[in-house]
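Q: Second attempt. The first request was missing the SMILES, so the protein and (2R)-2-hydroxypentanedioic acid are both included now.
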Amino acid sequence: MPKVLISDKMDPQAAKIFRERGVEVDEITGKTPDELKAIIGEYDGLAIRSSTKVTKDILSAATNLKVVGRAGIGVDNVDIPAASAAGVVVMNTPFGNSITTAEHAIALMFALARDLPEADKSTQAGKWEKNRFMGVEVTSKTLGLIGAGNIGSIVADRALGLKMKVVAYDPFLTPERAQDMGVEKVELDQLLARADFITLHTPLTEQTRNILSAENLAKTKKGVRIVNCARGGLIDEAALKAGLDSGHIAGAALDVFVTEPAKESPLFGTPNFISTPHLGASTTEAQVNVAIQVAEQMADFLVSGGVTNALNMPSLSAEEAPKLKPYMALAEKLGSLVGQLAHDALTGLAIEVEGAAAELNQKPITGAVLAGLMRVYSDTVNMVNAPTLAKERGLDVREVRHDREGDYHTLVRVTVDTKAGPKSVAGTLFGNASPRLTEIFGIKVEADLDGAMLYIVNEDAPGFIGRLGTTLGEAGVNIGTFHLGRRTAGGEAVLLLSVDTRVDEALLAKVQGLPGVKQVKALGF
Ligand SMILES: NC(=O)c1ccc[n+]([C@@H]2O[C@H](COP(=O)([O-])OP(=O)(O)OC[C@H]3O[C@@H](n4cnc5c(N)ncnc54)[C@H](O)[C@@H]3O)[C@@H](O)[C@H]2O)c1
Ligand SMILES: O=C(O)CC[C@@H](O)C(=O)O
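A: Got both inputs this time. The predicted holo structure:
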């Protein structure tokens, strides 16, 4: 039974779903990094919100970990390259808290427009300062959206409902999408010059860090009000403070800070500054949504291999997973075969599918070929880290899908580019379930690739098989299965034997010394 640790406070629905789906679950929150490191080795999955930091150091101790699930959107608390290198899938729940966060941005915009927190404080202090508080309407004002993805587009929709004009800066926003959303796509400088309110909805990246820098804040309209419910670091906090102090910025509301938890900040106490402690996603509805989604996704992955909303591997639906499973086993064996036989001086490879295989999602098949192939270089390779390793080695990976059906109803072919030219192996599924090799380097051989095997290339000549059998028998090696193929009678032949014990170097040398043997190699699957 797979075992998951929930390490941040999460709605109880998550644990309930894990258990219902046959996943054992522990809920242990508030651990220090060292405490987490001490226990993480027990778990196949780690379900987190934003408090747990999944660092390289934690991952180094996570010897059984297969998946990290983030109940939320931002994954800046997960070292994704390190997780990928460790073969750990990282998933998030990209939509579960979008409405809630968009509503928080709108709430903060209204709070700024009418100075609600200060008016509340003054009223509850018995001051009744009716003439002190003079707000602004949002109707007819211009809202500048920085980032128009899931949350930005919901904010735009709500703002249009409030009769605001919405301009958006997002380099990835197409003109068609902008039109559908009813917003005007603009450049950043135009947005800064025109917006009465600015809300931010981008991830924190090298391009977005300090997108509201001192220089850009100076380009804003006097009296602008700014809301950030996305990520700390998008605004230069010192420059924001200066803008508020000078009166150029009429108000700012931050849900997120450069350093969190933000126990102190020069912004605290600044007039017209409002803050919330990263509450964007904190509604009952959103927390139930993300807890259910993360538990379902992680359980699907751990129980049936389905991959949804993964940030470091292609998606694979729970319906597709059972159909693809035998293909992935076949692909991994073919990758492993070419890896073991032809990994020297590999520069690239093509993965072709035809027949029934061509109707399936090809990405997981490619991932499995690469995992099999790259295992020659490292034991810890799996479908998550294999593409990165292949890229690091400069391998050019091509995917080809053929509509045609050849000799087999379904076929996967892997062709590697070597110094000696392209070399290819192919395989099919028998009974739609059992992986079977059909061809090796241009020679037709049908074989199961399983356990310890011996690959021999020899000159096709009478008496060879007898001599080989005697040599192996004298060494106490029992032959399980025997598969023979040849290019032409009397030409080059290929033998694939499954053997009950792995053949050692001394015996390999003896086989290599038999007359007519061109190549011999011990294989393992
Ligand atoms: N405060 C919270 O509790 C809370 C809750 C949920 C999400 N978030 C954060 O909100 C942010 C937005 O989430 P989302 O779900 O809308 O993400 P999303 O991926 O759907 O949208 C992000 C948008 O930013 C755009 N973008 C990327 N680089 C940009 C750049 N240089 N300039 C302008 N736009 C750029 C992208 O094209 C995309 O449209 C994320 O940072 C997320 O972590 C915060
Ligand atoms: O889990 C939370 O409370 C915050 C989530 C939010 O930052 C997100 O990116 O989804």
